[in-house]
Amino acid sequence: MHEVHAYAGKILRVNLSNGRISTEPTMKYAGKFLGGRGINQWILYNEVGPGIWPFDPANRLIFGTGVLVGTLAPGACRCTIDSKNVLTGGVGSSNMGGHFAPELKYAGYDHVVIHGRSLKPVYLWIDNGKVEIRDASDIWGKTTWETDDLIRDELEDHDIQVASIGQAGENLVRAACIITNGERAAGRCGLGAVMGSKNLKAVAVRGDREITVAHPDEFFELVSELRSNMIRVANEKTPDDVRCGTLLILERNNNTGGNTVRNFQDAYWDPEKVKKVCAEEILKNYALRKMGCFGCPLPCSFYLNVAQGEFAGTRGEGFKADSHKDFGPKLDVDYLPAIIKAHVLCSQYGLDVDSTSGVIAWAFECYEKGIFTKEDTDGLELEWGNYHAVLELIRKIAFREGVGDLLAEGSKRASKIVGRGSDRFSINIKGHELYESIWTAKAWALGCIVSTRGCDHLRGSPTCENAGITPEEGERFFGVPTAGDRRAYEGKAKLVVYFENFKGVVDCMNICYYMTQWKNIYFIGPEELAKLYTAATGRETTAAELMKIGERIQNLERAFNAREGLGRKDDMPPARFFEPIKSGPAKGERLEREKFERMLDEYYELRGWDVRTGNPTQAKLRELGIE
Amino acid sequence: MHEVHAYAGKILRVNLSNGRISTEPTMKYAGKFLGGRGINQWILYNEVGPGIWPFDPANRLIFGTGVLVGTLAPGACRCTIDSKNVLTGGVGSSNMGGHFAPELKYAGYDHVVIHGRSLKPVYLWIDNGKVEIRDASDIWGKTTWETDDLIRDELEDHDIQVASIGQAGENLVRAACIITNGERAAGRCGLGAVMGSKNLKAVAVRGDREITVAHPDEFFELVSELRSNMIRVANEKTPDDVRCGTLLILERNNNTGGNTVRNFQDAYWDPEKVKKVCAEEILKNYALRKMGCFGCPLPCSFYLNVAQGEFAGTRGEGFKADSHKDFGPKLDVDYLPAIIKAHVLCSQYGLDVDSTSGVIAWAFECYEKGIFTKEDTDGLELEWGNYHAVLELIRKIAFREGVGDLLAEGSKRASKIVGRGSDRFSINIKGHELYESIWTAKAWALGCIVSTRGCDHLRGSPTCENAGITPEEGERFFGVPTAGDRRAYEGKAKLVVYFENFKGVVDCMNICYYMTQWKNIYFIGPEELAKLYTAATGRETTAAELMKIGERIQNLERAFNAREGLGRKDDMPPARFFEPIKSGPAKGERLEREKFERMLDEYYELRGWDVRTGNPTQAKLRELGIE
């Protein structure tokens, strides 16, 4: 029986242009970049130069598991997918849960690097050590759900794992994502469109090799303790979160000025509307059961079912805070079945909910401000809350039909085409549509704004600023006493640096990020990761060493962006966030431009980068061994 | 019976993403941009912004006939195709002869704008006023020659005109071109790859409408006089050129230090080798008959046949100076059947001979300098003159097989991937492989270097510098007494400005450029174009007005490039041309850096551009009405 080692794995390379398949050991890169996102990004940096555009055959699409993936470590299920970013032209990186990554690891591969572009639609079939490029002509044009079924039928195995694109990816829609298990999305950066440009419909995997860790007893003991502790503490301290997953976020955001109402025109939504769509409503009327990813001790997803009304028969899972807010307050829709339907359509067509709702919200605001009339929207009335129009636009975007062809370019590019000041309504950073509100919590805002992949809170943004963390806890965890004070600018740059580095390590291990910060009680911090790593690989390491690797990855990604011409000028929030919030409990709060700029200076200084350009210096890259 | 007017034509728009087909009148644009390249570029500038990459669905591929196309004007046959440039990221523009453009005009269309990207391979069928997107699944994977036959068979009409891509375009090879009539190529800028990225295999056209000119008698008289004069003078003054077409250029270049030997390592080729491949050899042993494009009074092409030896059975036409030099001296091949074979393969696979031979020559020099060994080249021995290796590499590039996958990226990008100083052997400007020698003739060099589409002599480079033009003639034709002195830098910037503007107008009329400058006796200059235009359209114009439009187009293209980040820094020759020629009659000649820079300053000044950045000023664009 073949065995798979947690550390010394294999990289599979598949060139779709000429069918060439080869492997190389991860050990070439593991010392400096661990695995997962780290190795992905190193390959990307070295092999995809600045003259290469996202849809060029020479672009790479890189799937990466991680050091702990497939082991008993909590939530060790993530798959990081990296490529050139279809929206920003810089680093593209996204991460999905489910069961795909462990299966890939069990098949014997830590990474799959897709080169080139097939002449006809294909899918990749990885059957343990056997790799085959198979015809996908008959699957082309299908949803991700149909694709899953058709491939499992064809291969006569319904336990295999499939990551696929829907029609959006085939049509090179910039919001296209990659989906596994029906609803787990590597959502952001338009990676589904990269996959579509390569005529690659899916990657299917069967793996049944055993995974080996270096010190099994020690590892098992560590993992058992972490798991039981997490479950116990979470149930004691945050039973509502255990029960509701991420669905409480909408309400909580509304109470702290963090909502995204009508394309971010306000941070506070009508409480009556909140009540209509809140977590309790979902649990009471739509949730059939809890669901989780591979190896999760605290599952956060629900299988939803709409039993009645216009959308009766709509079913699906993976519905979390983002879909909830994206298709609820952001578009002023307070009818839950329509919000669920929008989520399910995105899963089926393979659309990122954040970018898709972002460009739709842009179109709605253009309509509100008179830039669009019904003549521009194929006759649709884009009035806030008109969910029929929302659902129709999702379809039109996926198929590039009518106005959907324009919206498929994303709000930044669409606003350049449309002109007439419509760019003011494109709420993006570096061309990437913003999901989150960034008026109030300053580290959260900074983390979103400097994020190498455009914008988002899953890199440097901490959740602690609104969660009642004390100054003592802030000092103890991060060396930042103001960590729990959303109004403070002080210390926030340091907090962002900490979380960016930490998240870099998490993405190399590829355990679920939520395992590390369940309601800000850090179950798995750098120390725990170092112990897990040492037990799994047999290579001694420390928290400090890991955080250095996180820093290296951050610098590498930023250097990639710099090579593409991105820099400080692109680390800017949309103008809307310098204006005060209009209503609600955080009314009047806003980002102050001067303080923000100083925080940004401080961030670059802490990073050791050029404050003027926002780019890593040669000295810093040399220090990190990636000059 | 429908009629087609030389002036007030139609633009056909086809969106392959969603099947939407529409038309609009050319009159919207004709006042400022005439037609052909002018209108193409205006559409490109307005609809393809800087966030759009060449293979994005939002990129456009624009076919343009021209004001005089399809009329009796000499050589009124050209089709200009414009898009974002796959090699430079700036303006992409290429121009092909044959019979396609007149047929398109007779079908009732002056321009065809392709939007979007089909989900499956298709071809476009324009049957007079009827337009259809048809399945091309069975044609995908075929050569351009096979495609032509298959489509004509399918449509049961062997008189229709087809423009198609071969396997190179399907594989998004950066050197891919668009081919019509078997060998007429819109060669440069990688437009075949753009077409491939849209899954568009071909455009097929049938047109049998009558074309109407405004003043038929006057037009007929003008045209008759021009034609008979051209034929008479050409036969009297340059009978050898009438007989040999462009095939004398290789020998003449060799005698003036303008050859491209072994990837431009020398400008002079062994005269014994020249003798083996010279024009007389071709005419004596391979040419079956003369061939020409639509409406040509002085055809320059031959149908060639290799009757004996290893390549017996190789047949084709469209073989001109570029194929001759590209696969002869540039690769040190002195065996004519192999040179002809290389040309024919490029036509079949749909590869631009200049860029393809350029990247192959780069690989050969890398091999010579020890950067490549047989391990890097799939076992091929890339020794100068090894034509078997050349032919094998052409195939490998078209199919992205083995090392061909690297070479398919073009020499600039390939050299970045390979590193180790290999960029010194990439003879490109702005990423576009150079076809021509630029050591000696200064206006020729400057015209190539500042060319908006990367490099080439078909924009601002005059042929007069080596052709014995007297100072009086130079002064009379262009206001440049030094026009016939290749060593002079003085006046050359002015000469380039003149020819860039003039060529802009020619490409709007889309008569063949060679009609205008047959051996430097300018049969059709701005005055003649103004007369033809007035007679054809009924709109009075003057030479000066037309040249202003040429200037407008040049500024527009340059503004497009500026928006993509191109500028003065990219108006630089490869370092090789600052080093002296090693041997032959021009031994020791070179571009002198300081004098070149001064000439460049002068060029920008004459253009009214910013000398520091090389970009058009707002004032200049405003003056031209394109701010």
Describe this structure in words.
- The structure is a homodimer of 627-residue chains.
- Chain A has 627 residues and is α+β, with helices and mostly antiparallel strands.
- Chain A has three domains: 10-206, Aldehyde Ferredoxin Oxidoreductase,  A, domain 1 (4-Layer Sandwich), CATH 3.60.9.10; 245-433, Aldehyde Ferredoxin Oxidoreductase Protein, subunit A, domain 2; 442-510 and 542-623, Aldehyde Ferredoxin Oxidoreductase Protein, subunit A, domain 3 (Orthogonal Bundle), CATH 1.10.599.10.
- Chain A has 26 helices and 19 strands.
- In chain A, the strands form five sheets. In chain A, strands 3-2-7-4-5-6 form a six-stranded mixed β-sheet. Chain A has a six-stranded mixed β-sheet with strand order 9-8-13-10-11-12. A three-stranded antiparallel β-sheet of chain A has the order 15-16-17.
- In chain A, a hairpin with a 5-residue loop joins strand 2 and strand 3.
- In chain A, helix 2 packs parallel to helix 24.
- The longest helix of chain A is centred in the middle third of the chain and has 22 residues, at 216-237.
- Chain A binds chain B through residues 15, 17-18, 20, 47, 49, 51-58, 89, 115-117, 119-120, 137, 140-141, 167, 170-172, 197, 399-402, 404-405, 408-409, 412-413, 416-417, 431, 565, and chain B through 15, 17-18, 20, 47, 49, 51-58, 89, 115-117, 119-120, 137, 140-141, 167, 170-172, 197, 399-402, 404-405, 408-409, 412-413, 416-417, 431, 565.
